[in-house]
Amino acid sequence: YDDRDGSIWMDGDLTPWREAKVHILTHALHYGSSVFEGERAYGGRIFKSREHSQRLLDSGRMMDIPIPYTLSEIEAAKAETLAASGLSDAYVRAICWRGSGDDMGVASARNPVHMAVAVWAWGAYYGDAKMQGARLDISKWKRPSPETIPCFAKAAGLYMICTMAKHQAEARGCSDALMFDYRGYVAEATGANVFFVKDGKVHTPKPDCFLNGITRQTVIGMLQARGVEVVERHIQPDELDDMEQCWLTGTAAEVTPVGQIGEHTFEVGALTRSIAEEYEKLVRA
Ligand code: PMP
Prior knowledge:
D-amino Acid Aminotransferase, Chain A, domain 1; nine-stranded mixed sheet; six-stranded antiparallel sheet; 6 helices; globular; binds 4'-deoxy-4'-aminopyridoxal-5'-phosphate; amino-acid biosynthesis
């Protein structure tokens, strides 16, 4: 990804893509001190842009990474980078991190916090066979307890678990992994939330130790507007057997049907299809 034309916004200016670099003694590289956002623009407009900027600021606050920009400055930086990209449908990555400075130990309060925004074209997250139903592995790595780390932050440190889970999944021929939480309840995939359909109701894990995704909240709103009952609760792994349909939600994943999780299989049913279609329309509305 480093060898491309284009510009990346870094600390206030658009920088040529290939020159957007950090020093090897960047605190974030050694200790994971960064927070970020994943967003999508459709038709030249970032969907739920303010919500993402606000979550970036919230993540920074939760992870003790004070972001030196206001919400409107973050909005302006994203808009400027998107416009410079010339893309109308694009993925937007905003990131803030502890840089190199006076500290090289675990503490980094004296190191500056930087921000960058990069925009690139990114198609369907799970590939072109999106509507056929993704196959998911079951991860041996669990979402940590809220007492372990600020689990509602979108922070780099939390993604190491996801990367390991996804590597194992891909090695087994799956597109992603379902992770359980520290208590053993069904939690989420490595970069997306999960929903199930059973007897006309939608069940989704209660987000009490993982990201309550912006797409998740959008989809819950869509279901409720249709009068579909959405039950947010703790879901036991053995309940997967009884679930009829399953889909993932996320900015990158959008609404992606799931055909299989481990040994459990699901139908790509009418509700899954129509929610995926409605989401596609909504993001461009
Ligand atoms: N969980 C994780 C671990 C994620 O990385 C994401 C993607 N940001 C989500 C859930 C879904 O969040 P959103 O809908 O806000 O993109």
